[in-house]
Design goal:
- With about 180 residues, this protein is of the alpha+beta class.
- The chain has a domain of about 110 residues.
- It is built from five helices and six strands, in the order H-H-H-E-H-E-H-E-E-E-E.
- It has a four-stranded antiparallel beta sheet with strand order 3-4-5-6, with helices on one face. Strands 1-2 form a two-stranded parallel ribbon.
- The longest helix has about 35 residues.
- It is globular.
Amino acid sequence: MKFEFKFLSVWLFLFGLLCSINLYAQDYERVDATIQLYPDRFKSAEELSRFIERDFTSEENKVRAIYGWIINNVAYEPEEYEKFNFNFKNFRERNEKEEKTRKKVIARTLQKGVAVCEGYAMLFERLCELQGISNYLVRGDIKSNFNDIGRSFKNSHMWNVAVIDGVFIRSHLGSWKIQR
């Protein structure tokens, strides 16, 4: 009887462990499936935020929903860079221009479904703000080919880092990385 009880206890423990791992792994599948039901265009960030608030409770799932909706519904379009003047001489000029154009960039990204990295990052940031999730815009450089090696640094790219329970989640166009 003791052997059967130990065997049953071990079996139940392993079964519970496997189920919990499977449920955790399925979590993003549920998030990803839910956002596929959302409209592909919204009039405002607040409208999209209401869908996310309705469907998800954890901050991690909300961030995944924000990221997933953006990468599934916004196309990278280099010509969008010409729609807004992102060039600046100094940080003061950059800040002034950014304040004036941020709302326009977010609205255009939601309504037209096209953006460059600024559109992705500003929309991600705004949606996190609306959900009360700590989030940072990161400005930096992107070097994508061999000719970029050795060239001087340019502030020509933007991405996000959300912080949930001390865990950093980097959202960068088509990549999602959790750093514990």
